[in-house]
Structure formats: structure tokens, C-alpha cells
Design a protein that fits this description.
InterPro entries: HET. This is Heterokaryon incompatibility domain-containing protein. It holds the Pfam family HET. With 851 residues, this protein is α+β, with helices and mostly antiparallel strands. 20% of the residues lie in helices and 20% in strands. It is built from 24 helices and 36 strands. It starts with 14 loop residues before the first strand and ends with a strand.
């Protein structure tokens, strides 16, 4: 046997009681790789006839054996790993340093080495050949990618309990159950945790392996995950849900699906549900998949009588096999059960969401290989395990939510509502099988009582109550959906309409306008009458509190502008995309002043006083939202020309004048300043939006003409109220040719808030009165306002009566309140622009077209 040189100096074992450890840092929370690095080459599919799956030839997992023939090295023998892995509560919990497993020279430390003819059972990896010590081999594989010779990485083995890592309370039945963690260089767990398998080897595989799931024993057991799937396991999970979760996972209402067709898995024929003698609701499976192969491989024949051709894609053949193994006769596959026209416009077929919701189970091949389903015709990845004198110890494998997040199924808009709206899902990953219903989630590699499983977080792929049971959950669905890939904004809308219909069916139903939610009037925490304008104004206030990935990019989202044929207005989140360098963990989505506890809209929040909204259509029609809101929605759905292009908004606005930074203050990243009474952090954010929206040569706000466009004076309350477009000091308004050369204007548009005071003043307020904090109408709720930061569109940079603008972002602005001082002028009082400095922001009533 050859022994390669691994790394530098030798380090002896270090282990210490964690209770006494004060100088060493705690290990970081789990951060997993999104894609497994343990992929192996896919073998030729195992062709199966139309019969039930056999367990006769399932091979064991990759197993490293520690016994007399495979003895430990001197260091591992001193550590006594069998006793530590079989740790019991009440014993000391040491941290065991594993440096020797990645830095030792094996020739010098192994007292007994097998001969070259001896074989290791861990034949799936060449690392096993580098050391004759089974423990060194096992832990080196657990650690994963090795550091370079100059690295200071120190791996540890730690004894953990469920309450520390799996989200369960310490006093819960499962709180003190044991799992072993091996820290890795990047704080990830590519093999998951180490768990002891059941003491009885007969329960490691086959029908007896479901014993732990059906019992009530408070234990986490490791399970052997064989190359091929055990169908008994899937039936156990599904039948448990049917028996015990009727309230959470049953069908509260049934929607009739017109012309529903299904594949009869016994005869392999496409049949019409209306021709069957039995009701098929909750008695069929549905297949949710992404085809990653060549499109021509999806072509197959269907006879006039519905008989499927002999040459089916292996993916469909596997789905039929699984359906029969689950005791179901019928399966829905889009390519078999939809017309050619519906397949080409699949996202726009409204019944698809109902088909998945009413299925008994949804089958999801969560893999990027379309040649078959892992565990059915495709062997799965090996599971690392260790057999010692203390028993068999298996690995829980990469956390399911993160393994699924790395496959194409989790990136497509089409599959989002198929997974969310399903009541039971079985996901087939390259490493194991995963189940989640509306109450619990579990997977093959960990045995746990299903009666106790709901309290654990083993890596949920879908949020609890994923289908949406409260209006507050909508923002979470939007945040997740924002990461899905779509070619156009209209495609993104079609892929989310099933979710929107689900929220519309709630008791406190949520309406929508191009994806913008219209929260139910009962969700407003105000004693006043809630108008349709209030509902839309609150929905327009969506924003992110994410951190910038780089200077100049202040949100995780960017506006994806498209043509009129496929694009949607900038005021709906559907027109925005997640930046490529953002992950789901550092990105959020929320609505300003909307919480999570009913009533979710904060107390006193409403649209701005005097606010009016009209909906502008492609055919030129303009409908009042307050009066004709329902008609506007019907117009959008009924006709091809019912495309909504913009919202005409009459509300309180203010200019955001941008000028050159004085030469002595100018820096590389601060060429401009914002002359506006806003908090410093808000001003910087607005400048970042401006820099991103107006690239390069357009960023030249330095001429008097440009100043004329950016500075609109506050009108005299005693005058007619008409606002001049030319500030004092300029001799005339710019002509059309000059204005077209100017950079876009920035405008703040107030849409909603609380702390409105509509009392008008008969005199022009003085600067001192503007900045004074008026305590006469002091409220218990802190006044705050939602403001859309907008920019004039490229085709409308000239001063017009009703400017065309698009959204750049939204800000939440606390202050001392709003006060109207005339019919067309108002102020926001007490804005903290600097530390201990408060000023007022002047507003005027305008009309804008928000595109």
C-alpha cells in the first residue's frame, strides 16, 4: 500500500471537556454547501418491468470497518472513538481534535498495516487507501476538502444534543437525544451528522427499518440508505399522514377540475377522470419535474385510445413504478394529461394548481439528471458509515433543504406553486428520499418517531404551512419566489397566480393587482373606514432591508426592464430580479408597516390624505381604482388589450435635487450630494439608486437648466396653489431641445403612513414653525411614512404636467408627523437629518404616472 505525503507537522490529539472550554471559540452555525461534492458518475439505468420493486439485491452503503483486521492508529486508539461515538448523557462531553487525521504521516504512526492485498470496504473513494487507520479515513472524509499546508484549520469532533442543533426545546422529549458533529474548514457539513444506528442489525434495512418511525421512543437513530429505494418507507410516511393529519393535511374543499385526465399505471393508458366509476380526488399522484435533457427525448406516442407508447422517458416510467408501489393507480403527468396547446402555455393553465393541491402525493425528482429517478432506476450516492465494536454509525447526509436548493427544480417558476400547494411531497435527491406534509418532515437517513417529528427541524424544504394559512405568510412566499428563474415578468406572474388564488380563498382574503397584495380590510388596525385606495397604497410599499453586496447596489433586487409585450410596471415586485451575488440567506422581503400578527397592517396606517389612484391600460382607458377597482381587475383578465401600463397617482410629492459635490469634498465614491431633508443613511441610499439608474455620461447635474428641473419651489399657500416649474434666479423655463439633454429627475412619492394631521394653516409657515415638534396632537403610535423613490423615465425627462416615473426603491421614514398647511402644500415635521438635528420636508400635491 502506498502512503502519500499529506501535510506538514505532526500534531497529537487534544480533547477537552466543553464545559471547561473558555479560551476556544464556539463552532459556527451550520452552513452547508448547496451542491453535493460527492457526485459520482451515473450508471446505466436499471430497466424494470411493470412490477413492484425488489429488495433482493440492494447493496450495503459504503462502510468503513474498524475491527481486528482494520486496527486504529496509535492516536485513534488512545482517543477511544467507539466509546465517544456511543456517548451517553451524564458523561463528560469532550471536544476531540482531529488534526492528526489530516496531517500525520501514516507510515510512522500505524503499528499494524494491512498488506497490499487487503481491501477496505470504503471503495467509493481513493482517500481510504491513504491511511490504514479506519478512524482517520472516516474523519478525513467527514472533514472534506483539506486546507493547504499554511492553513491553521483545526477540525474537531463534538458531541451535540438535539436542542442545540435541531430547533427543539431542551425539555422536549427529543431535546437530549445525541448526534455527533465534525467541524469542517468552511463550517459546512457535507456528510451531515453522525448517528448511531439501531442495535438490532435486522432493522437497518428492509420492512423492519420503519419500526422507529411508527413507535414513540424518543430517539434519533441513524439509518442505512441503500442504493435503491425501499418503497415500504414511502408508504409508511404517507399512510401516517393520512391517519393522523386529517385537519392539517386533508382537503377542506374540493375544486372540480374540468376535463381532468390521468395515467392509469396498471394499463398505461391516459383516461378521463369523468369516465371512472370512483372519485379520484386525493387518490392519484402528481409528477413535478424539470426536464434537463434534450427536448426530442420527451417525444413519445399516445394512441387514439390513450394508450402510451412503449418508449416512454425513463423519468415517467420510474414515476409510474413509484405510484404503483404506493398503492395508487393513477398518476398525473403534464406531457400525458394536457393538450398540446395547454403544454405550450402551461403556466397559464389555472387548473394545474388545483391538480397538485388535490393529489394524494406529489413526486419530485430533485436532481439535474433527467434519465431517471434516484433510487428507482438510478443508484444513489454512497452513504458514509462506520462499523465499530460499539455498533454501526451512519451519516445523516447533506441537509435536504440545501441539497434540493442546488437543483434546477428549485430554480424554476413553474415548479414553485406545484411544491407549495401540494399537501404531501416526496422528493428524490441524489443521496436520499425526503418527505414533507403540512405537519412534519423526515428523511431516510434519520430514524425518528413520526409522533415526535413535528418538533424537529431537520432541514425543511418547504416552510411549515407552506400553502399559506395567514396573510402574513405572503411576504415569505414572495421572497422565496423572487429567486426563481423566468424569462419574462408576465411568466413570473403566471407562475405565482396559483399562490395568489390560495390567499384569495382565506377567510381574510387577500386580493391582488399584478401581484401587489390588497390586504383585507379586517387586517387594518384602524378604527376608520378602510378604502380601496388604502389597500393598494399599503401594497405598493414593498421593500427590502437587505445589505448591499457591493458599493452602488443597495438592495438585493434590481429592476428588469422589458418591452411592453412581456414587461410589467416597476411598481410591482414581479418586475424585479434578485442580484446574482445574493443568496436567499441574506435577502428579505417585507411590506412597510405590515407585521405578522393579525391585524397585520400597523395601527393607524392608511393612504395619504387626498390620494387618488387610477389604472391606465394599453388601449388608453383610465379607470378610477376607488370607484372602478373591480372593473379594472376584470378588464385586465378579460381582454388582450387589458394590459395595465401605469398607475396615475395624485398624492404628496417632493423633489430629490442632486448636485455636484464641492471640489474640496469630492471623493471617488461621492461625486454627488442630495439636497433634501432626509436622514443621512436614506440620502446615501437614494444616491446609490441614482448612480445605478443613471449610468456614466448621464450623471452630469451641473448646468442651470438641470437645476431648473431638479428644484421646484414650494408655492405660497395664499396664492392659487399652482407650483412653478422654474425656481427663483432662473430667467425662463428650459425649451424642449435643452431639456431633453438633462439627466432624469428624482421624485419622492408619499403613498402611506400614520400620523396624518390635515389641519391647514392660513399663513405661510416660518422655518422655526416647520422644525418645531408639535405636541398638541401627540399619538401613542409613532408617526412614520412610506415613500417611493422614483425617477423620470427616459422618454419623459422634460417637465410636463403629469410626469412619467418609475420606481427605484422605497423608504420607511419615521418623523414627528404630517401637517397640511394649504390645499396643495404640506410638511413632514421633525425628520432627524443628523444627530440631534430635526428638520421639516416640504411636500406639494401632484399627479404622476407611475410606470
Amino acid at each position: 500500500m502506498k502512503f502519500p505525503k499529506l501535510f506538514g507537522r505532526r500534531r497529537g490529539p487534544v480533547y477537552m471537556d466543553s464545559d471547561a472550554l473558555t479560551a476556544r471559540r464556539e463552532s459556527s452555525p451550520d452552513v452547508h454547501q448547496l451542491k453535493s461534492t460527492r457526485r459520482r458518475q451515473v450508471r446505466k439505468p436499471l430497466r424494470r418491468e411493470n412490477t413492484l420493486m425488489s429488495m433482493a439485491t440492494i447493496p450495503p452503503s459504503s462502510r468503513i470497518v474498524a475491527d481486528e483486521e482494520h486496527p486504529p492508529c496509535v492516536i485513534c486508539r488512545a482517543v477511544d472513538f467507539p466509546s465517544l461515538l456511543d456517548w451517553r448523557p451524564g458523561n463528560p462531553r469532550p471536544w476531540v481534535e482531529l488534526s492528526h487525521t489530516i496531517t500525520q504521516s501514516w507510515v510512522n504512526v500505524a503499528p499494524i498495516r494491512p498488506s497490499d492485498e487487503d481491501s477496505m470496504t470504503a471503495s467509493s473513494t481513493s482517500v481510504a487507501e491513504e491511511s490504514p487507520c479506519p478512524y482517520c479515513t472516516f474523519f478525513r472524509l467527514m472533514v472534506g476538502q483539506l486546507p493547504d499546508e499554511t492553513g491553521k484549520f483545526t477540525p474537531y469532533m463534538r458531541i451535540r444534543q438535539a436542542f442545540e442543533k435541531l430547533g427543539v426545546k431542551e425539555k422536549a422529549e427529543l431535546g437530549k437525544t445525541v448526534l455527533v458533529e465534525v467541524t469542517t474548514k468552511d463550517k459546512d457539513l457535507p456528510w451531515g451528522y453522525i448517528l448511531k444506528a439501531a442495535d438490532d442489525p435486522s432493522t437497518h434495512e428492509g420492512p423492519a427499518s420503519v419500526k422507529t418511525y411508527l413507535g414513540r421512543k424518543a430517539v434519533l437513530e441513524g439509518r442505512v440508505v441503500p442504493e435503491m429505494l425501499d418503497p415500504v418507507l414511502l408508504k409508511t410516511w404517507i399512510e401516517f399522514c393520512r391517519t393522523h393529519h386529517e385537519d392539517a393535511c386533508g382537503l377542506s374543499a374540493v375544486t372540480e377540475v374540468a376535463d381532468l385526465k390521468l395515467v392509469d399505471c396498471n394499463s398505461k393508458r391516459v383516461v378521463s377522470a369523468s369516465d371512472l366509476k370512483e372519485d379520484v380526488v386525493d387518490k392519484y399522484a402528481a409528477l413535478s419535474y424539470v426536464w434537463t435533457g434534450e427536448e426530442e427525448d420527451l417525444q413519445f406516442a399516445i394512441g387514439e385510445d390513450g394508450q402510451l407508447g412503449e418508449k416512454l422517458p425513463q423519468l415517467f416510467t420510474d414515476a409510474i413504478t413509484i405510484t404503483r408501489n404506493l398503492g395508487l393507480q393513477y398518476l398525473w403527468i403534464d406531457r400525458c394529461c394536457l393538450s398540446e396547446e395547454d403544454i405550450s402555455q402551461r403556466l397559464s393553465v389555472p387548473v394545474v394548481a388545483d391538480i397538485f393541491h388535490q393529489a394524494a402525493v406529489t413526486l419530485v425528482p430533485a436532481t439535474d439528471d433527467s434519465t431517471g429517478i434516484p433510487g428507482v432506476s438510478q443508484p444513489r450516492e454512497e452513504q458514509l458509515s462506520l462499523l465499530t465494536e460499539a455498533g454501526l454509525f451512519t451519516t445523516s447526509l447533506l441537509r435536504p433543504d440545501l441539497e434540493v436548493a442546488g437543483c434546477q427544480w428549485a430554480t424554476q417558476v413553474r415548479t414553485f406553486q406545484e411544491g407549495i400547494l401540494s399537501r404531501r411531497r416526496v422528493l428524490f435527491t441524489p443521496s436520499q428520499c425526503y418527505f414533507q406534509c403540512c405537519s412534519l418532515h423526515c428523511h431516510e437517513s434519520i430514524g425518528v418517531s413520526l409522533h415526535l417529528a413535528p418538533s424537529l427541524n431537520l432541514g425543511r424544504v418547504f416552510a411549515s404551512d407552506a400553502g399559506g394559512t395567514t396573510p402574513a405568510q405572503l411576504k415569505d412566499h414572495i421572497r422565496t419566489y423572487m429567486h426563481r428563474e423566468a424569462i419574462t415578468a408576465t411568466e413570473r406572474l403566471a407562475g405565482f397566480e396559483g399562490i395568489l388564488r390560495r390567499y384569495h380563498q382565506l377567510d381574510n382574503s387577500v386580493g391582488e393587482l399584478l401581484g401587489v397584495p390588497l390586504f383585507n380590510i379586517d387586517e387594518f388596525g384602524t378604527g376608520a373606514v378602510v378604502s380601496e385606495t388604502d389597500r393598494l397604497a399599503v401594497g405598493l410599499g414593498w421593500l427590502s432591508n437587505g445589505q448591499a453586496p457591493a458599493p452602488g447596489s443597495v438592495e438585493p433586487y434590481y429592476y428588469h426592464e422589458e418591452g411592453l409585450e412581456t414587461g410589467l410596471p416597476s411598481w410591482t415586485w414581479l418586475s424585479w430580479r434578485v442580484r446574482p451575488d445574493y443568496g436567499s440567506l441574506n435577502q428579505s422581503f417585507q411590506f412597510s408597516m405590515v407585521g405578522t400578527t393579525s391585524p397585520i397592517v400597523a395601527s393607524g396606517v392608511s393612504a395619504a390624505p387626498k390620494m387618488e389612484i387610477s389604472v391606465g391600460f394599453e388601449d388608453g382607458k383610465l379607470l378610477s381604482w376607488e370607484i372602478d377597482g373591480d372593473a379594472a381587475v376584470r378588464e385586465k383578465r378579460a381582454t388582450p388589450t387589458g394590459r395595465i401600463l401605469f398607475l396615475r397617482v395624485r398624492t404628496w410629492c417632493f423633489n430629490l435635487p442632486i448636485r455636484d459635490t464641492p471640489e474640496q469634498e469630492k471623493g471617488e465614491d461621492r461625486p454627488y450630494v442630495l439636497d433634501c431633508h432626509l436622514p443621512k443613511s436614506v440620502r446615501q441610499r437614494v444616491l446609490d439608486w441614482y448612480r445605478e439608474a443613471v449610468p456614466g455620461e448621464k450623471q452630469a447635474p451641473s448646468t442651470p437648466i438641470a437645476d431648473a428641473h431638479r428644484s421646484i419651489p414650494w408655492s405660497d399657500p395664499d396664492s392659487s396653489g399652482v407650483v412653478d416649474n422654474v425656481p427663483s434666479g432662473t430667467e425662463q423655463a428650459p425649451d424642449q431641445e435643452q431639456a431633453s439633454k438633462n439627466p432624469p429627475r428624482m421624485i419622492g412619492v408619499v403613498v402611506s403612513g400614520r400620523g396624518w394631521e390635515e389641519t391647514t394653516s392660513s399663513t405661510q409657515p416660518t422655518p422655526s414653525s416647520l422644525n418645531k415638534n408639535n405636541n398638541k396632537n401627540k399619538q401613542t403610535d409613532t408617526p412614520a411614512f412610506t415613500i417611493l423613490v422614483c425617477i423620470t423615465k427616459d422618454d419623459d425627462q422634460v417637465a410636463v404636467d403629469i410626469p412619467k416615473i418609475r420606481r427605484l426603491g422605497a423608504i420607511h421614514l419615521p418623523c414627528d408627523g404630517f401637517a397640511a398647511v394649504s390645499e396643495r402644500n404640506a410638511i413632514l415635521r421633525g425628520i432627524e437629518t443628523e444627530v440631534s438635528e430635526k428638520k421639516a420636508l416640504k411636500l406639494d400635491l401632484r399627479e404622476v404616472d407611475l410606470w
